[in-house]
Amino acid sequence: MSSSPFHGDQILKASRENAPPLKEIPGGYGAPFFGAIKDRLDYFYNQGREEFFRHRMRKYDSTVFRVNMPPGPFVASNPKVIVLLDAASFPVLFDTSKVEKRDVLDGTYMPSLDYFGGHRVCAFLDPSEPKHTVLKQFVFSMLVSRHGEIVPLFRNCLSELFIVLEDELASKGKAYFNTLSDKMSFNFVFRLFCDKKPHDASIEAKGSKLFDSWLFFQLAPLMTLGLTKAFNFLEDILLHTFPLPPFLAKSHYQKLYKAFNENATSILDEAEGLGIRRDEACHNLVFVAGFNAYGGMKTTFPALIKWVASGGEKLHRQLANEIRSVVESEGGVTLTALDNMSLTKSVVYEVLRIEPPVPFQYGKAKCDMAVRSHDAAFEIKKGEMIFGYQPFAMRDPRVFDNPEEFVGHRFVGEGERLLKYVYWSNGRETDDPTAGNKQCPGKDLVVLLCRVMLVEIFLRYDTFDVDPGKLPLGSSATFKSLTKAPTSN
């Protein structure tokens, strides 16, 4: 059963019209130092991430509560947060008049600036900071200037991916999608921004591994490797107790910086025209290419494959019929054709709803404020850190029917009205990123690339099957079978 768009609208309208009295925020932080350690162990090992939040939501009978968020001591000096887990309270994190977004990209800790060439890149800046506007405009200009190249280039990269995937499936009986997707994603990003293939530059085919290393050392305090219990204590000491020294990733970052600095000359020229120093522009470019673009694709594409595979042959048949008929009527894979594929668009939105590429949002209260859940209002004081867990906000049963299920048709027709509750991009799906907000500048690009991937799959294949899995950050998908379409080349 698909969601009724009126269900969520009526619930939230009713909660707005019947303003409840202020209620004290339940929960707490425990003893200094030891309370944060206990919460960290619960989060990573004793309960796991999802149960960590569910347990406290049941305990306090509230979707808003206080807790310590990892990593805590000694990586983060202050782990205390106020958690928001419902669709009604979550959007306060988008309101930069109420919350400050300075240095909160990774939560309660800030990675060393040595990871970014000594610069606070745009993602760590609050919109009130003077550099934010010009740096985000720089990102917009990069995307706009390459708008016409995106679809044909990505289709070309996907063609190369499917050739390798088919060969591997034929020779081994299975094909691990993540590694192939990572390599394809890096190739696409590098070619988009540098106008040449990676093997034409000094990093050759190693780019995805270089980015993986750089991302790991920054984000290690937020992840667990899924080792056996015997290694939990050792992992906690190594990953969560002290920051990993940036010099371990320095050589990899320098190779990436050198490659983009030497090959993305037109983009860096554009940046200088905007008044940005060339070295600062290049460090921001590496971050956009590696963290935002490559990092986003690294988590999003396997999730897309996993969830679409779970839809089974019936959904696959419906997608194939829509995609092939629209492509035929429009005379190719055009932007108009992509926009006319209502089910394909809905499936992409549903994947982003149920497994967003970035599950966390943080912001520090700029003023005393009242934040409302469906059932209560809570006072948050200036300076308190607010944390939102996006998967729960987008699986809110007060908004979505069958919220834990993947429903491919959820956003078709009247269901489009529910897109205002899809928050994956640090903003509503119905909003647009601007230089004055913190919504992902590549929001529309992510949706577009996911649609193109589905189009390329179902122009070639009737159905497919995968083994899904979990990774420290995101999901994995291993192809077990591919059934070619009768007319597929």
UniProtKB/TrEMBL annotation:
InterPro entries: Cyt_P450, Cyt_P450_E_grp-IV, Cyt_P450_sf. Signal peptide: none annotated. The keyword tRNA processing does not apply. Heme binds at C440. Coiled coil: none annotated. Keywords: Heme, Iron, Lyase, Metal-binding. The keyword Iron applies. Gene3D superfamilies: Cytochrome P450. One of its GO terms (molecular function) is lyase activity. This is Allene oxide synthase 3-like. It comes from Rhodamnia argentea.
